[in-house]
Write a structure and sequence with these properties.
Helix content: 40-55%
Radius of gyration: 18 Å
CATH superfamily: Metal-dependent hydrolases
CATH architecture: Alpha-Beta Barrel
Shape: globular
CATH class: Alpha Beta
Number of helices: 14
Order of helices and strands: HHEHEHHEHEHHEHEHHEHEHH
CATH topology: TIM Barrel
Structural class: alpha/beta
Largest sheet: 8 strands, parallel
Strand content: 5-15%
């Protein structure tokens, strides 16, 4: 059977199977909750045409699989230099075409002039819950003083900072656009200096989310939130939470670059308690954008 056919067929029964998994040995019904997808994009990736060539197609797909909220960045933000224009188009599309599902996360590039005003516009003009960073494409590291300044500003404005550690697997990159994954290690030392900052890592892959990794154990107490789009282990969520029970894991699909159904199967194949399932589906994500 082809992988595409397998994913589509398996996803059709995923809602029932997920409910069965979440019920667990205790027999208790799972906590009712929506599904928040924390890792979604609009527009084409530069070397790949997107099947979701309109926001309406993306929204229809997400609704079909029970998504109640999707945190959306723009692939344009990776390589465009007019970040204000990118963010304005993203916010407009989410407001106009999302049916209330798409929540925009604007791009910030602290290597560009006047990036602080892009943060201001994301917060004051577009009313975004957070921002999304692409350090490997924008040419800075997480121990750069400009990144520390960004954390401080976003913490003050109560904006969640999402850091995309990668966009695509290194093995499938166009040589002209090669970008090594972002090194997340500096976060463990930086975040305690900015207690109001909240950070989420996208596409962390098995480099961090593999079991018994020292970096995961350092980033977890620093308050970092993770998502599952690039988690590749069999029963990966289950194994991860057995290894580091306090890890905060959220649902993420990296759609439309990845198949949405692949993320659903990661929920299906892990035996999670009702509380764990609820946390992954929505609770951890909602807490990350609920500032007190």
């Amino acid at each position: 059977m082809q992988r595409r056919t397998f994913l589509t067929s398996a996803a059709a029964a995923s809602a029932t199977l997920l409910a069965t998994r979440a019920t667990g040995a205790s027999g208790n019904a799972p906590t009712a909750s929506g599904l928040i997808d924390t890792n979604v994009y609009l527009s084409d990736w530069v070397i790949r045409h997107s099947w979701a060539d309109t926001p309406a197609k993306l929204v229809a797909k997400l609704r079909r699989h029970g998504v109640t909220s999707a945190w959306v960045g723009s692939f344009e933000g990776v390589l465009h230099t007019d970040i204000a224009g990118v963010n304005a188009r993203l916010a407009g599309a989410c407001l106009r075409d999302s049916g209330g599902i798409l929540r925009p996360f604007g791009t910030i590039n602290p290597a560009l002039p006047d990036w602080e005003d892009d943060v201001r516009r994301c917060h004051e003009v577009h009313r975004m819950p957070g921002v999304r960073l692409f350090p490997n494409y924008h040419g800075y590291t997480l121990d750069d003083p400009r990144f520390a300044r960004l954390l401080e500003l976003c913490g003050r404005r109560k904006l969640l900072v999402q850091i995309a550690l990668s966009i695509e697997d290194e093995r499938s990159q166009n040589p002209a656009l090669a970008a090594a994954p972002v090194n997340a290690a500096p976060l463990a030392d930086i975040l305690p200096k900015f207690p109001r900052a909240r950070v989420m890592l996208l596409n962390a892959s098995s480099r961090i989310l593999g079991t018994n990794t020292a970096l995961l154990r350092r980033l977890t107490p620093a308050g970092v939130l993770f998502e599952i789009a690039t988690l590749e282990m069999v029963a990966g969520i289950e194994m991860l939470l057995k290894s580091v029970p306090e890890a905060r894991i959220a649902f993420g699909s990296h759609v439309p670059y990845f198949y949405f159904e692949a993320a659903l199967l990661k929920l299906q194949e892990s035996a999670l308690t009702p509380a764990q399932m609820d946390a992954v589906r929505s609770r951890h994500a909602q807490a990350a954008i609920t500032f007190t």
